[in-house]
Structures are given as C-alpha cells and as structure tokens.
UniProtKB/TrEMBL annotation:
Keywords: Cell cycle, Cell division, Periplasm, Signal. The Tol-Pal system is composed of five core proteins: the inner membrane proteins TolA, TolQ and TolR, the periplasmic protein TolB and the outer membrane protein Pal. They form a network linking the inner and outer membranes and the peptidoglycan layer. This is Tol-Pal system protein TolB. Residues 40-140 form the TolB N-terminal domain. It comes from the Bacteria. The lineage of its organism: Bacteria, Pseudomonadati, Pseudomonadota, Alphaproteobacteria, Acetobacterales. GO terms for biological process: cell division; protein import. Belongs to the TolB family.
Length: 445
C-alpha cells in the first residue's frame, strides 16, 4: 500500500509512505487464545447500536493527542462508533504500546482499542497504530506511516479509514474533501464564493473572491479539478477549475446559457444543461476534443444530469410529463424513461457511487426533502425534511449524503448537513459562513 500524495499549491505536498502492515513490522502480537470472533459491524438499518471503541491519545505528546482526537471524531461522526470518554480508560498511552491489558479495556466497555504513537524520524514523523479487538483479544490490523508532521491531520483521516474498513468491511470516506458555495451578506445581495475543506470542516479555504456569482461546483472523479457555473462578466457559463494549479477556463463559448455541469465517471466528459432558443436541453462535452453532443430535444426543461457509476446511463429531471420528475436515458441520449411517480416534484438527482440508489430533492406541500430511490424508481425513502433541503451529494462509499438546509425568513441561514443513507445520524457540517451546493470529492489519491 502506497498512498503517496501529489503536490498542490493550496494543500501542502504530502508524501506518506506506508512502511508495512502489522506482520512486516512485527506488530502482530499473539494475544491470549479466545473462542470469540473479532468484532465485525454489519452496516444497515436504523436500529444499529454504535460500537464502543477506545481511542486513547497516541504516545508522543501533544501531536499524539491531536491525532487520536481526529481519529475519534471521524469514527464518532460516522454514527457507527461510540468512542469511550477518556476518563474511563484503564491504561495510559505508554502502557498500551506493547501488549495492552485487553480484559481491562473490555471491562471498561470497549469492544475495540486503538493504540498508537508518533515519533520524530529524521526530518519527518513516524505514525504507528494498532487496532485491537478487546473481546477476542486479537490484533486486527496495524500500520506505520512516515510524513511531514504538518500533514498529521491527513494521516489521522487515513488511519480512521483503515479502522472503518477493518471493522465494517467497507471503504471509509474520511480522507476526502468537500467543495461548496460559501454565502454571506443579505439574501437579496448574496456574495457566493467557491470554498473547499476537509470532510470534517478543517483546512477551510476560499477558491474564488466572490466578485462573480458561482453555483453548483462538482468534483472530477479523476483529479483535483472541479466544474461549476459562474456569472463572470454577467455571462452565465460553465467553467473548469484546477485546484492544484489554480488554472481556470471556460468550458466552451456556447450560444446559450450553460449550467448544472457534472463529470462523467472517467472524468473525460462533462454533461450539462444549455438554454438556447427558448429550450433547455442536455449536452455532453468531450474534454479531450471539446466536441459537444446534444442528448435531449423537445420543448421540455431538462437539467441536473448525473451519470451512473459505469457511465452508461444518465439520470436527470424534466417537466416533459407536465411536472418536474426524474428520468433515465442512455449516455448517448434520447429515449428518456420516467422513474419517479410519487406525490410531488423531484429534482437534483445524483447517482450513488455504488450504483444501487439515486438521491434527489423532493418538493411537496411547500416542504423540501432529501430522499433516495432505486434506479428503477422503486423503494423511495425520504431521509430528511424541512423548509428547504436541497442538493444531495454522495460520500465516495455511498453510505452518507451531504446537502444544504435553508431556514425561512429574511435572516434565515443556509447550512451544510450530512445524513446516513438510512435516514439517521443527521449532523451539521461546520463552515465559517453560510454554505450551499456541497460536492463530495472521491478519496484523496
């Protein structure tokens, strides 16, 4: 495993080297033979009880404590884990570096224990951790990294992802970022800037000045590029923005207003809406050739396209049937088939990275909801509801959805939230100012 990171002007160059897995490091200590199987979380359903886990400070002073705090916060925020309060810990960080007294941790209420340390190593810092099952008294995994100490937060997210995957069998989503629209000022004169942050709200920074209105940023699945709509010089058009280089370019000089862009799964195309000659249809732009292909035609308003994970289909919303509903067509265009038939209007569909669900915004009775349904339109479930919930975006593991919520009134706020695909574990995502239109990145390379 090698998670070497690429450089970014905005994000410190991070080069993380995994020195080896537990066995290679001699970290796989033989615990007492126990008949119990290691803890394994089965993710799903709303009656799930979070697994108690202990994440003491890593040995190594203040930095060790900070690393453990980020790991603990990541796991707790997922809703699948319940970190034990530090006051209940039966051993100190130094005491658990070799063979922790797992029976004592089990008595304290922990099903799992994370033990780690940070140590200077030349001009860098070594980070080591082990995950223990307190019931079976087995070491489940253990890994070591070297990195610049300035990048300790990212190392902590990677460790949290490793723990999440070992205990759930599914990929984590903690080593990711979220790009969104930062909003400030009165509602009739909002300043909207592109902003980016880690998935937990840390390392926040603005990408644009706020001089020009920006909307609907979307991450490329392949590199550190986003596409979005901007009213540069009062001309609404779709742009590409490379986060690494800061380079920005208009996608093309089209005759009409272009908006609602989204990348294809291979990152080679952008599908978007274009309003031209009184019609709003979907178009596909090949980023290698800049060739544009019209995908829909007719008098309906068709927008908010989103590719299936295999790139073979596109879900979008259209008023072709008389009200705003969700449709699916082949990636080549034409032949749209309606999939939403519930009571209300549907918008902003987004295909799950797993391919099993489509998230959407539903409008009914003056209320807005975030929901999910299968690609054939079956199994509709409403996850949230408020005055205005809108713009779902999936975490890369397809288990968590981020969206924004606007409260009513002239002074009402706009905030980012996350919710599990089960409809539980709704949480506020902290931002310095108001925020809307979130877009979740893939796992960092």
């Amino acid at each position: 495993m090698d998670r070497s990171m690429t450089a970014t002007h905005a994000r410190p160059r991070l080069k993380v080297l995994v020195l080896g897995v537990a066995a290679a490091l001699g970290l796989a200590f033989a615990g007492p033979a126990m008949a119990q199987s290691p803890t394994q979380i089965i993710v799903g359903g709303g009656n799930f009880q979070p697994i108690p886990i202990a994440v003491p400070s890593f040995a190594g002073g203040d930095l060790g404590a900070q690393v453990a705090q980020v790991i603990s916060a990541d796991l707790e925020r997922s809703g699948l884990f319940k970190p034990l309060p530090p006051g209940t810990f039966p051993q100190t960080p130094d005491q658990i570096q070799s063979q922790p007294a797992l029976a004592n941790w089990r008595s304290a209420g922990a099903d799992s224990l994370v033990a780690g340390k940070v140590t200077p190593q030349g001009g860098k810092t070594a980070f080591e951790f082990r995950l223990w099952d307190a019931n079976s008294e087995q070491q489940l995994t253990g890994t070591a990294f070297t990195a610049d100490s300035a990048n300790w937060r990212r190392v902590a997210h990677i460790i949290a992802d490793t723990i999440y995957k070992r205990l759930t069998g599914e990929e984590g989503y903690f080593d990711t970022r979220i790009v969104y629209v930062s909003e400030s000022g009165p509602k009739n004169r909002r300043v909207k800037r592109l902003a980016i942050m880690d998935q937990d709200g840390a390392n926040h920074r603005f990408l644009t000045s706020g001089k020009d209105l920006v909307l609907t940023p979307r991450f490329s699945p392949r590199d550190q590029t986003i596409t979005y709509m901007s009213y540069f010089n009062d001309k609404p058009r779709v742009y590409l923005f490379n986060i690494d280089s800061g380079q920005q370019e208009v996608l093309g000089d089209f005759p009409g207003m272009t908006f609602a862009p989204r990348f294809s799964p291979d990152g080679n195309r952008v599908v978007m809406s274009m309003a031209k000659d009184g019609n709003t249809d979907l178009y596909n732009v090949d980023l290698r050739t800049r060739k544009i292909t019209r995908l829909t035609s007719g008098g309906a308003i068709e927008t908010s396209p989103s590719y299936s994970p295999d790139g073979g289909q596109i879900v979008y919303n259209s008023d072709a049937g008389g009200s705003q509903q969700l449709y699916i067509m082949g990636a080549g265009g034409g032949g749209g088939k309606r999939i939403s038939f519930g009571d209300g209007r549907y918008a902003t569909p987004v295909w799950s990275p797993r391919g099993d669900l489509i998230a959407f915004t539903k409008m009914k009775g003056g209320r807005f909801s975030i929901g999910v349904m299968a690609p054939d339109g079956s199994g509709e479930r409403i996850l949230t509801e408020s005055f205005l919930d809108e713009a779902p975006t999936w975490a890369p593991n397809g288990r968590v959805i981020a969206f924004f919520r606007q409260s009513p009134g002239a002074s009402g706020s706009v905030k980012l939230y996350t919710v599990d695909v089960t409809g539980f574990n709704e949480r506020l995502l902290p931002t310095p100012l108001d925020g809307s239109d979130p877009a979740w990145s893939p796992l960092n390379p």
